[in-house]
Amino acid sequence: MTLARKNRVSGARHVLRLVNGARGNVPTRPDDKGGFTVASENPVYILGDYNAKAADNGFVDDQHAAAAVIADAVTLLSNNWSDNVGWTNPTAPGSRIGKTTWYRVAIAGGKNINFQEPTWSTANDFGTDGELDNTDMFVVPEGHYFMMGDNRDNSSDSRVPPEAGGVGYVPAANLVGKAQIILLSWNPGASIFKPWTWLFDARPSRFFHVLQ
Questions:
Q1: What is d(CA 168, CA 147) in angstroms, rounded to the nearest whole number?
Q2: How far apart are alpha carbons 63 and 86 in whole angstroms?
Q3: Which tens digit of pLDDT belongs to each residue from 68-124?
Q4: Of 37, 100, 176, 192, which residue is least crowded by CB atoms under 10 Å?
Q5: What is the per-residue DSSP string for 109-140?
Q6: Which helix (H) or strand (E) holds 88?
Q7: Under 8 Å between Cβ of 60 and 23
Q8: Cα(81)–Cα(75) distance, integer angstroms
Q9: Residue 103 main-chain phi, psi, to 5 deg
Q10: Rg for the chain (alpha carbons), in Å?
Q11: Phi, psi angles (nearest 5°) of residue 80
Q12: CA–CA separation, 123 vs 145, rounded Å?
C-alpha cells in the first residue's frame, strides 16, 4: 500500500523545509510500517533531528522509519539553526553556531549526464552515477565524524573505508588544529553583498597577522 499527497501550488515555489522530524514524528503508514519519502523538484531543507533523536544518542534501530528525500538539493540544518540569527548578520562570529544533530535518512540523487574524464587528469573517475553517488546508508559511530570531500565524485572521503584507500570515519580525537595566521580582516557589518564595505571596513593592521 502506498500513500501520497500532491501539494497544491499556491504561488511561487522556492524551497521545502522539513521540521519536527525527530524519531517518532516521521509519518508512516496507518499500520505503523513502511516509511516516508519526500520527493521535490525544488531544494529541501531538513531542520533539526530527523528520524533520530539527540536525547537518545541518535539512533535506536527498532524505532525509526524508512525515510528518504529526493530533491534538487538537500541542506541539513542543525538543531541550533535560527533563520533570524542566521540571516540578520551572517558574518558575525557566533551567529551560526552549530549543535550536534542526528539524521537517519537516505538522500537520493538522480542520474546526470556522464562526462568523459579529461585525458590529462590523474583523479579517480567515478562518473556522475558511480559507486560514490549511489551508496548504502552510513551510520556514523558515536565520537566520530563523516567527512565529505569537496570533489564529491572523485574524493576518497568517509564513503571509502581505510582498507580501500579512503578516510573512513574520523575519530573526534584526530581533529587537532591550530590557527597560524589571520589572512584578511574586516569590521563587523562588512558584507560580501556590500562592496563599499570591502574598503571602508577593512582592517589592514590585521592583514597577514601571524598568531603566537
A1: 8
A2: 32
A3: 898 878 888 888 888 887 777 766 766 767 788 888 888 876 554 454 555 655 655
A4: 176
A5: ----PPPPPPTT--S----SSSTTTS-----P
A6: helix 83-88
A7: yes
A8: 12
A9: -130, 135
A10: 21
A11: -90, 5
A12: 24
